């Protein structure tokens, strides 16, 4: 199973981000229900023992709820594949939570994440360099701001491979208060 730990966005923020979608040649927009903030990509996880360690590690994380505020848009390009994204306002609480997730998962037996944490929500993808329509989209939406919303749990998602758009299935929720934990659902 391809897994990642994330903060699932509330519907109000998903609606706001969905309103940014435009018909731009070559852009494949992700469905709004897939919008999330990845805290840690776990990759392919095989075997029940490791899955149980991950579940236990995430269930043990305690933190105050995290406030998220959308803040601008941009483009990442890596290996000929580009992504349109919405950024999030810097937050010590978010950085601390991501570090706790990283530490817990390393203790559970996963290798350290090699990429620096850059809080963003992926909105769509395209091949090659940004053309004038994409540059204009970024210019038109780079001042995006949302009201702040509190997120009170981490979600473990199963990423299903598809040919066109991503499909993510929530496997378990981990309240940041750690008082109540929804057990991992077997897939």
TrEMBL record:
Pfam families: 2_5_RNA_ligase2. A motif (HXTX 1) lies at residues 36-39. The keyword Hydrolase applies. It catalyses: a 3'-end 2',3'-cyclophospho-ribonucleotide-RNA + H2O = a 3'-end 2'-phospho-ribonucleotide-RNA + H(+). The keyword Hydrolase applies. The active site is at residues 36, 120. It is an enzyme of class 3 (hydrolase). InterPro entries: Cyclic_Pdiesterase, RNA_CPDase. Its EC number is 3.1.4.58. Keywords: Hydrolase. Belongs to the 2H phosphoesterase superfamily. ThpR family. PANTHER family: RNA 2',3'-CYCLIC PHOSPHODIESTERASE (PTHR35561). Hydrolyzes RNA 2',3'-cyclic phosphodiester to an RNA 2'-phosphomonoester. NCBIfam families: 2_5_ligase. This is RNA 2',3'-cyclic phosphodiesterase.
